[in-house]
Every structure is written in C-alpha cells, then in structure tokens.
Design a protein that fits this description.
CATH class of the largest domain: Alpha Beta
Shape: elongated
Structural class: alpha/beta
Strand content: 15-25%
Distance between the termini: 53 Å
CATH superfamily of the largest domain: Tetrapyrrole methylase, N-terminal domain
CATH topology of the largest domain: Cobalt-precorrin-4 Transmethylase, domain 1
Number of strands: 10
Radius of gyration: 20 Å
CATH architecture of the largest domain: 3-Layer(aba) Sandwich
C-alpha cells in the first residue's frame, strides 16, 4: 500500500457504542481498513469485531494483531514498530472513539514520531469533542481532565477546584466517570457547584438513546437523568 521507506500509522476511530460504523464516520475509514492487514488493538476480540463490522470480507486469519493497553511494556512498543520500519502500513484502533485521546495509543504515536514515521489521523467520533460541541459553553478554551478522584472528599475538592479554575480562566472543564458512578457524580456536581454554574451532561453520544443537556447546577438538583452505566461526558463553566 505504501511506497515510502517506512510504513504509515493510521489512527482509526471506533464507534462509541452499538451503532453502524458508517453512520458516524466517512467511507474513507472503511477503505483504509480494507487496505490494511496489520492492526494495534486495546482488546483483540473488540478490535476484530470492529474490523469485521466495517469490512466483513477481510479474512480474519490474514490479520496481524498487536495489543496496546495498560500492560504493554517498552519492549512491546518497540516490537510494534517493526512492521512500520519494514514498510508495512498499520492501523491503530482503540475500543471506542479516537486513538490517542484519553487512550494508551498515544504512546505508540509518540514512538512513531520519534522514528520519523508518518502518522495519519482519520475522521471519526470523539465523545470529548462532540460533548464540547453540544454543550454551548466556551468552545474557544476547554480542558479535558479525565477521571475525578474516587474518594468522596477528594472528589468534592476536585470539583470545587475545577469550578474555580473555570471561573478564573473562563475555561470549560471536561471530565468523565466510570459509568456505574454517573448518577452519584451528577448528584454531587449539582450540590457542590455554585447555583448558576453551567453543567452539561452528554450521554450515549451518537447512539439512539443519546441525551445531551446543559443547565445550571441549581436546575440539575431537581431534574435528574438516569445515567447509570451509560457512557457520559460532563462539562462545566463556572459562574
């Protein structure tokens, strides 16, 4: 596929849930996958299922798979670069959304750059960016902060710190939570934030059950949405 000395690393987006891939991403993603035979997945079963869903005619036995997750070692990363060094193109696919964003794939991308290899990001759904787009908060300046602390006291402290930072910088603060803790977090946010602080909740983005709403913390106290075990992105803009 590639005529370069080294192969190209394609960053291939995945769906955010149970939806048809080509409903949320361009045909170029399908064409790229069909031209590749070497992939990096977080989980092999999930990665193979996605490839099959978007291109069922690819023989699974012809696919070479590398795994990149929290157990990946430096030696593993070095081995993953070998196909690229030998001129073969490779696709990096995360479990959901875009590789390298809140995702361990960033380590492989960094290695590719350090070895002067071409990195090509493909268009697809990113829950973080879609949540910011739909929030109606400050899209000129925002920060993704990952997960809040698990400890209740530390979590409340973090919420107040993010709100303070948001007010000082006029910056939207974005974070996520383990899905089964979503309802508890929404309740804590509605109580800990200032009454007029805006809080946006983006749940099941791109899915038929999608729910996106922005309201004041005060309004959220009396109008809760059941977010249990539903992937959700929270955004706030302090006031």
């Amino acid at each position: 596929m590639s005529t370069q000395t080294t192969g190209r690393l394609f960053l291939i987006p995945n769906v955010l849930g149970d939806t048809a891939p080509l409903e949320v991403m361009p045909i170029s993603v399908k064409k790229t996958i069909e031209a590749l035979r070497c992939f990096v997945f977080e989980k092999e079963k999930a990665g193979r299922a996605f490839v099959k869903s978007i291109s069922p005619n690819i023989p699974q036995d012809n696919i070479t798979v590398h795994l990149l997750n929290k157990f990946t070692t430096e030696e593993d990363l070095t081995a993953m670069l070998l196909p690229l060094q030998n001129g073969e193109d490779m696709g990096l696919i995360t479990d959901a959304g875009c590789p390298g964003v809140a995702d361990p794939g960033a380590s492989l991308v960094a290695r590719a750059h350090a070895n002067n290899m071409r990195v090509i990001p493909l268009v697809g759904p990113s829950s973080i960016l879609l949540a910011v787009m739909a929030a109606g908060l400050n899209g000129q300046s925002f920060a993704f902060n990952g997960y809040l602390p698990i400890d209740k006291g530390e979590r409340r402290k973090a919420i107040k710190q993010y709100e303070k930072k948001s007010i000082e910088l006029n910056q939207t603060q974005v974070f996520i939570e383990t899905p089964y803790r979503n309802n508890v977090l929404l309740d804590e946010l509605s109580k800990a934030l200032r009454p007029k602080t805006l809080l946006s909740v983006a749940c099941d983005i791109t899915l038929p059950t999608e729910f996106i709403k922005t309201a004041t913390a005060e309004a959220w106290r009396n109008n809760k949405e059941d977010l249990h075990k539903r992937p959700t992105v929270f955004s706030l803009l302090g006031s």
